[in-house]
Design a protein that fits this description.
- The protein has 173 residues and is mainly alpha-helical.
- It has one domain.
- Helices cover 80% and strands 0% of the residues.
- The chain contains six helices and no strands.
- Helix 3 packs across helix 4 and helix 4 runs antiparallel to helix 5.
- It is elongated, with a radius of gyration of 21 Å.
- Keywords: Membrane, Transmembrane, Transmembrane helix.
């Protein structure tokens, strides 16, 4: 009988499933954060335009009108939104790969989770802007950080370690 070349599917342990679900929550909150951050950038469009004009004025060979600077600042905001969506798509792929037992995905998600926690720390001290949108942005970031800590812990528990170690052995065989 011929082998189809496919590996038999292993059932992920409970901790890996929990980590996967936490990552889905993190990504859902991240998708909810995108419009909030884009709206914050739109609210600060005048400041962004002024900064861009200042930087262009420092360059002797460049000239830019205020209208052009505003247009480029708007394009940058749109590009940031697209980049956020692409990043969340890549993280979704990594979450599914982690659930399937791929060690590289666990490493990537652990690193991203640590970054989420580090970037959420300033929100604890509320030293930024005031208003509803900054509050919502900070709250979403804090919840993402808490979920990330839970996901990291779940991905590195003993049962999870055995699951990922089993995948490493299968890759080297």
């Amino acid at each position: 009988m011929k082998s189809s070349g496919k590996r038999p599917r292993r059932t992920p342990p409970h901790d890996v499933i929990t980590a996967f679900q936490l990552w889905l929550g993190i990504l859902a909150l991240g998708i909810a954060t995108i419009p909030v951050r884009v709206l914050l950038m739109v609210q600060n469009l005048d400041d962004s335009t002024a900064v861009l004009l200042e930087q262009v004025e420092q360059q002797d060979s460049l000239s830019l009108t205020e209208e052009q600077a505003r247009m480029w600042a708007t394009v940058a905001i749109g590009a940031v939104g697209v980049i956020f969506v692409l990043i969340f798509g890549a993280l979704l792929v990594a979450a599914f790969a982690m659930r399937a037992g791929r060690p590289w995905a666990r490493v990537v998600l652990t690193a991203v989770g640590i970054v989420l926690v580090v970037f959420a720390i300033p929100a604890l001290f509320a030293g930024g802007q005031t208003g509803v949108l900054p509050f919502v942005d900070s709250a979403l970031g804090l919840v993402q950080a808490v979920l990330a800590v839970g996901a990291i812990i779940a991905m590195h528990r003993e049962e999870s370690n055995r699951y990922f170690a089993g995948e490493k052995r299968r890759e080297s065989a």
